[in-house]
Amino acid sequence: MTIWMKNVAGTEHEMPAGHPEQIARLERVNAALEGPGFFALGMHHAPMAGEADIMLAHPRAYLEGIRRVAPSKGMISLDPDTSMSPATLEAALADPANWTVLDAGQNIAGLGQRPNFVQVYLLRDGDPVSLLLLPLSGQGYGGRIDAIMALRGDMNTIAGIAVTQHSETPGLGARIEESSWRASFPGTELRDASGELRFRVARGPASGVHEVDGITGATRTGRGVTQMVRFWLGPDGYGPLLDAIERGEF
User: Fold this and answer.
1) Half-sphere CA count of 25, side-chain side, radius 13 A
2) Are 72 and 86 in contact (CB under 8 A)?
3) Model confidence at 48, in pLDDT bands (50, 70, 90)?
4) Cβ-contact 5, 91 below 8 angstroms
5) DSSP assignment string, 77-141
6) What is the pLDDT of residues 50-77, one digit of tens each?
7) Would you say 41 and 4 are in contact if contact means Cβ atoms under 8 Å apart?
8) pTM of the predicted model, to two decimals?
9) Torsion of CA 227, 193, 245, 135, to 10 degrees
10) How far, in Å, are 1, 3, 46, 106, 238 from residue 100 at the CA level?
11) 3-class secondary structure for 138-174?
12) What is the DSSP letter of 208?
């Protein structure tokens, strides 16, 4: 299925003369898509990226730096190839080219969409990758959960996890940020010998190598963490990256 994503910010994103991203070009494309030949094409409003989404791809300092220099009028040059007008940041945040919309079968983490570009961190011991840090996000019981997971060099064994943002219930789901709960992650394996993703937060104490301890009274938080990890470590998340690292392509 093909859908047409648009946002009014794109028609206010003014660039210098000669730059390929011109408002007039975008207006002509929109006018053509509104014609009779494209009646069957569904148009959707491009959603604005939230700050937590951007943090998956860039450090906070990068975004804050862009915001500080964003002009209220006129135009500035960020580098020899990148200009910025007052509407540039909003247009970038709404650019559907930076996001993949997830269908119902893919959307197991409750995100609705995922960024196409994410900043990850690799630690090498000589040439092989010995540690990989991956930003994760998903829907918990009280709201969005953001975390960073570390994987060992086999790309299957968890080295640790840090929860960086959540809105879970104090004393219950909020315990996901406690070191005592996170201590059950190191050594947990994501997949079984057949390659099937088996990771899960148990409903009680972990009973296998693919489980971490559950939190009493926080079943929905645990399910959210399970689905978050399964999404991002699966084929619609970092799965292709993990495969490429295992093949020695990084």
Assistant:
1) 9
2) yes
3) low
4) no
5) EEETTEEE-TTHHHHHHT-GGGEEE--TTT-TTS-SEEES----EEEESSSSEEEEEEEEEEE-S
6) 667 776 777 777 777 777 787 878 888 8
7) yes
8) 0.67
9) 20
10) 13, 12, 11, 11, 14
11) EECCCCEEEEEEEEECCCCEEEEEEEEECCCCCCCHH
12) S
Q: How confident is the model at residue 131 (pLDDT cuts 50, 70, 90)?
A: very high
Least confident span in 68-72, 102-106, 235-239: 68-72
Evaluate whether 71 touches 85 at the Cβ level (below 8 Å). yes
DSSP conformation class of 216: T
Strands 144-152 and 158-165: antiparallel
Q: What are the pLDDT digits (tens) for 105-129?
A: 999 999 988 888 787 889 988 888 9
Residue with tokens 């011109």: 22
Reference 201, options 247, 240, 236, 168; nearest CA is 168
Neighbours of 174 (CB within 10 A): 18
**Which residue type, as a one-letter code, is found at position 41?**
L
Structure tokens at 197: 């993703």
Section 70-96 average pLDDT: 76
Tokens of 5: 């994503």
Q: Does pLDDT of 157 surpass 90?
A: yes
- 211/190 Cα distance (integer angstroms): 9
